[in-house]
Amino acid sequence: MAKPKGLVVITVDRCKGCKLCAEACPTGIIFMDGTVINIKGYQPAAIKNMAGCIACGYCAMVCPDVAISVERLDG
């Protein structure tokens, strides 16, 4: 399995399910999790394959609720 270049952390209870992060992700690893409802009543974003993360940070940049952070992993 490929080693991820980044670590995406989604604060689920801050997410309002706007889908901007999923649309901005060039690798398509972010999706809206229809099986979960957060404390605000929204279906939040989730990661389906962290190994596909290239640590571009686009998801965090477009999130209007500052619910996503991206950490670049070395090596």
Query: Which range does the strand content fall in?
Result: 15-25%
Looking at the chains present, what oligomeric state does this protein adopt? single chain
Average pLDDT, to the nearest integer? 94
State the separation between the terminal residues, measured CA to CA. 15 Å
Number of helices: 2
Helix share of residues?
A: 10-25%
> Taking strands numbered 1, 2, ... along the chain, how are they ordered across the largest sheet?
1-4
Short structural description:
It contains 2 helices and 4 strands.
Explain this structure to me?
The chain is of the alpha+beta class. The protein contains two helices and four strands. The protein has helices at residues 20-24, 58-62, and strands at residues 6-10, 30-32, 45-47, 68-72. It has a two-stranded antiparallel ribbon with strand order 1-4. Strands 2-3 form a two-stranded antiparallel sheet. The protein starts with 5 loop residues before the first strand and ends with a strand. The model has no long low-confidence stretch (mean pLDDT 94).
Layout: helices, strands, pairs:
Elements lengths: L5 E5 L9 H5 L5 E3 L12 E3 L10 H5 L5 E5 L3
Antiparallel strand pairs: 1-4, 2-3
Tags for this model:
alpha+beta; 4 strands; 75 residues; single chain; 2 helices; two-stranded antiparallel ribbon; globular
